[in-house]
Every structure is written in structure tokens, then in C-alpha cells.
């Protein structure tokens, strides 16, 4: 088997490779060639940790396996390591033998960034020029960096509950040679694309904050109770997601569903747009919203790409089982 | 992290170590110190394979993780490798970091054998002398070998749908210096202990095949629809299991439950007997039945023992992540 250690991954995994892996697997999900297994998520009653498994199988890409791990909230304080810890295990779909083990920490950040990036490429207006951010934490930098590659943006604007953290976004904008402007939530009306990436449990982005024609990627809501966009904003938008079942139960669409403002049939798979079986955006005035909930197949796809990259660059560890 | 490769495990793992690990974790389950996660089991639509994850956490033993893998029915014919393929991954419960990867094929055979062996030790009559087997496949040899260590048995008797396979049992009996006798199902009335280990979907062992005072370990039923013992035999016995939720849904007790002959409250955890909180067998005439469904915690416990053994014997592979 092959091991790709976490320490090797930041030098191996490009945004481009992550983008391609995620776009391909979203397409495979929509065409019925790939599916995610039910998610296991357990509050284990030790260290306040959440632990679980996200598995899936992509019969076209040949990826079978799972991401295992979770959230250990005291890691940074107690052990000086990051709180999100995960590892991906790939299996040979022809034999069931373990094929690879791949660090899942850095790749989770990049696959999550790739998801909103894929949605921008397929759903934002071609003339989008102002990029808006809600949230400015560690993951927000990854989302912004990937997003800026999808359109010739001319400016980044951003809002965060703790304004002092907006320096994170300003830095990423500067890397891309773009000006950054801190705005209040009303100021987001200037944005052509908005990414929300917070851990909020109450709506931040309301209907009047968003102009017609905007594409929104809601990336923070992955649990029952979390919410970034108001239910009426969600109901007003044309809705896309990675996986419909997750979107309506633990994703951003859960609240509009619960309020009876939308039904499951109102939410389309982004993969259908990638495949061309859904036309995507219909008009320049339409608000499109991508609900990125995060699926195991993204992790498997990016990890499979990492195995190939690690072998090619000679940094894969081979273990004789 | 530490890797214990499959090839090293037959020389490392003893029946004694498997027995202790399984007995301890059954006790921890009954005392509320260890629990299994919901099982993921997927028919992936490729190679007729069944694939999934059995996870759990034992806060006393410190084992957190999962067994991943499944059943690839064409492996032996197509690739010359065994059809059951699995791998165990252990995580550090304090940080969520992966701690070890352990081959799961041989250890699954031994942990399954250990389960019926634990049940015999705690539930069979002390004067049990005749060991009966229903089933004579590959796994039956493991079950019998472990069982014979629990009482001073004087004879092994056995029945199998294909009688020519009974030579497997005769060989194991001979290793222990015991005579073997092929019997018809009525002949099992002579047995003091009976292990059933088949893949049957219809009852084989009926009430009139079993004498008062017998201990039965039903080890083959792990799926909806499978069945080894008749529902009225199950209803007549005092019932024990590894995990009640599995016993009544996918284990041997599913049929007596469905027929309304027993309720969930009639099935006790074997761990309660090990802990002393359940008295176990009440009388020499009682039929006791252990429904062994197989839980992830068994795999984690045996694998954690294997990590220690592999380090001690110098065959662990250490990988710097």
C-alpha cells in the first residue's frame, strides 16, 4: 500500500488538482456513477470530540473508501496541533484490499475551497468583478484564494463578526494583486459573488444584502441548527448543492425546507450543471445559491489525486503488507 | 503511526490474547464504558461486493476507530486471495490522529472464535464433555479450536450440509487428541455445547435436536434473513448476545422477535455475565443461547492487543507521518 503523509501534502496538492478532482466527482454523483454512504458522526464523550466516517464509491473514478476523523476542540491548546484531524483510506474496489492512506487535514481545506470554486465557475455571471466574503477565519483564506481564480475579479470586499480578522482576507486579496475593502452587511450588495464561511447558528446574510444576479456559495453550514443565509434569501435563489439529501437536512437549505418555503425538488445537484443536464443560471438577474455541505467523495477524489502526485514526485511511502 | 501487516498476524495473535481482548470489551460494553457506532454496510454494485465500516469507542481500553472492508465473493477465483478482506484503523482518542493500521483478516477469524469461546466459558455447564458443531467451513475450524480450550471435552460431533467437509472438524479434533463423529441433526442431542457457524437462510437446529442443559452459540447469523436456529428453540433458551440491538435486528434473535415469541428484554448482554451483574446459567437443565453478531469493538480490542504484540516482537512497521 501507499502512504501519503500529512507533512508532504501542502507541497503536493495544487488548487488546480483539487478543482478537477471535485468537479469530476460532483459530475459522477449527478450521473449516478458515484454515491456517498450514510455519514457516521459521534459525540464520543471524551475530550468533547466529534468523530466519524464519511465514505463513498465512485465507480468511474475507481475511488472506494472513507475519511475518518473529526473535531477535537482542545487540540490546539493542549497539544499544539490543529483541532480538525482526519485521515483518508482508499481501498481497491476490485478486491477490498486497502490501497492507500492519505493525510486529510490540508486536503479537506482545499477540497472545501474547490467546491465553492466549482460553483462559481459554473454559476456566477461571466462579468462578475466584485468578490464578497462573509467570514474571515482560517478556512476563509482557502475559499477566497480558489474563488479568485474563477473570474477576473477587480476587488474583494468582506465582513466578519470580529472585524480584526479581516486582515486574513486582505492578505489573500493582496497576493492576487487586488484591493480589499471591509464593508458592513449592506455593503455586500456590491458583490457579484458571495462566499459565506462561518460557524453561525443564526442567519447573517439577509435578502436585502444581496443584489440581483449574485452567486452565493454557502459553505459553513454542515450540521442541524447552523445557518448563514436567511430562509427567505434561500427561497428566492435558484438552488444547487453537492448532495441534496445533506442540503435539506444539515445544509443551508434545512431552514427554508423546515419553513415550507421550498421543497426538495427545488434543490439541484451542481453535478447536473457540470454534466450539462441542467442549464445552470438562466439570466443575469437570477440569484444562484450553492449549498456546499461537504461529502466523502470529495475527500476520496482529492486523495486519489494525491496518491498519483506523491508517486510521481517520489514522496509516497510504500509499505509491504 | 504503527502498521501491523496482515502477513505478520498469524504468528503474533494467540487465541489467548484474542479471548482476553474480547472478554474485556464485552464487559466494557455491558458496563457502559464502550459502545459501537451504527454499522455502515453497502452493496456497492461492483464485483458483487459488500463493503462497510464497523466503528466504536472503548473509553476504558482507550480504543477508538473502525474496521473497514467487506466481502468480495470473486476474490478467490479471480485473484487467488480470500473473499473477506478487512483492515482496522485505530485513532488516538485524545487527539483524533491515526495511531495504527492493522490487518483485519486473520484477526476477524480469531475474534469471532473468541466470542463463542467466551460464551462457553461463562455459560456452558462445567461438566460439558461433548462438543457439537453445525457447519464445517473454514471459520468452523477456528470456532472449534477455541471452544475446545474452555472445558475438558472428550468428544466432538458434527453435522454439515456437505458431509465431505466434516474432515475439517475431524482434523481440529485430532489436534486436540479427541475423537470425532459425524452425526445427523438428531444426533446433536448428545452435545453439551453446540456452535452453529453456517451461512444458512433457514433454520437448521430445531428444538428437538437440543437436550436440556445445552449451551448453544449461534455465530453465523449477521444479516437480515439469515437463520440457524428455529424461533421456538430461541424462545425456549435463556438468551445472551454481544449487542442486543444487533441481535434482535440482524442476529439469530431476529426471527423469534418477529414472531412475537420473545421481546428485547429477554436478551441479555454477555458482558453482564462477565461483570457479574447477571448470574448467567441458573440450572443444569437450562438451555443457554449466545447470539454472536460481531461488533466493531471486538476488532478494535484485538487490534489494539496486536499493536502491543507487534511492538514487543519487533515486527511493527513505524511510519513517520
Counted beta strands of chain A = 18
Structural class by secondary-structure content of chain A: alpha/beta
Return residue spans of chain A where pLDDT drops below 50 for at least 5 consecutive residues: none
Distance between the termini of chain A: 7 Å
Q: Biggest β-sheet of chain A, characterized? A: 8 strands, mixed
Largest interface: A-B, 47 and 47 residues
Number of helices of chain A: 11
In words, what does this structure look like?
The first copy, chain A, has eleven helices and 18 strands. With 321 residues, chain A is an alpha/beta fold. In chain A, helix 5 links the parallel strand 8 (130-134) and strand 9 (155-159). In chain A, helix 2 crosses helix 11, helix 4 packs across helix 11 and helix 5 packs parallel to helix 6. The longest helix of chain A has 19 residues, at 105-123. The N and C termini of chain A lie close together (7 Å). The mean pLDDT of chain A is 97. At the A-B interface, strand 4, strand 5, strand 6 and strand 7 of A face strand 4, strand 5, strand 6 and strand 7 of B.
Amino acid at each position: 500500500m501507499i502512504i501519503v503523509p500529512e507533512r508532504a501534502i501542502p507541497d503536493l496538492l495544487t488548487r488546480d488538482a483539487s478543482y478537477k478532482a471535485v468537479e469530476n466527482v460532483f459530475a459522477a454523483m449527478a450521473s449516478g456513477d458515484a454515491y456517498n454512504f450514510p455519514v457516521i458522526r459521534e459525540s464520543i464523550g471524551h475530550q468533547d470530540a466529534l468523530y466519524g466516517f464519511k465514505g463513498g464509491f465512485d465507480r468511474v473514478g475507481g475511488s472506494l473508501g472513507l475519511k475518518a476523523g473529526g473535531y477535537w476542540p482542545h487540540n490546539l491548546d493542549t497539544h499544539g496541533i490543529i483541532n480538525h484531524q482526519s485521515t483518508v483510506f482508499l481501498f481497491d474496489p476490485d478486491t477490498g484490499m486497502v490501497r492507500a492512506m492519505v493525510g486529510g487535514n490540508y486536503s479537506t481545506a482545499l477540497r472545501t475551497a474547490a467546491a465553492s470554486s466549482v460553483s462559481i465557475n459554473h454559476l456566477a455571471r461571466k462579468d462578475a468583478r466584485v468578490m464578497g466574503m462573509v467570514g474571515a477565519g482560517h478556512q476563509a483564506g482557502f475559499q477566497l484564494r480558489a474563488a479568485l481564480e474563477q473570474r477576473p475579479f477587480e476587488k474583494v470586499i468582506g465582513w466578519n463578526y470580529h472585524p480584526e480578522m479581516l486582515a486574513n482576507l486582505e492578505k489573500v486579496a493582496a497576493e492576487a494583486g487586488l484591493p480589499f475593502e471591509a464593508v458592513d452587511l449592506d455593503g455586500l450588495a456590491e458583490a457579484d459573488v458571495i462566499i459565506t464561511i462561518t460557524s453561525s447558528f443564526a442567519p447573517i446574510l439577509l435578502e436585502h444584502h444581496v443584489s440581483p444576479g449574485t452567486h452565493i456559495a454557502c459553505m459553513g453550514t454542515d450540521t442541524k441548527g447552523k445557518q448563514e443565509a436567511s430562509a427567505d434569501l434561500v427561497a428566492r435563489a435558484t438552488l444547487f448543492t453537492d448532495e441534496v439529501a445533506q442540503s435539506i437536512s444539515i445544509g443551508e437549505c434545512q431552514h427554508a425546507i423546515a419553513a415550507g418555503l421550498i421543497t426538495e425538488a427545488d434543490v439541484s445537484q451542481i453535478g447536473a450543471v457540470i454534466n450539462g443536464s441542467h442549464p445552470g443560471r438562466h439570466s443575469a438577474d437570477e440569484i444562484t445559491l450553492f449549498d456546499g455541505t461537504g461529502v466523502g467523495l470529495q475527500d476520496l477524489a482529492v486523495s486519489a489525486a494525491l496518491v498519483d502526485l506523491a508517486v510521481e514526485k517520489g514522496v509516497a511511502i510504500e509499505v509491504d503488507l
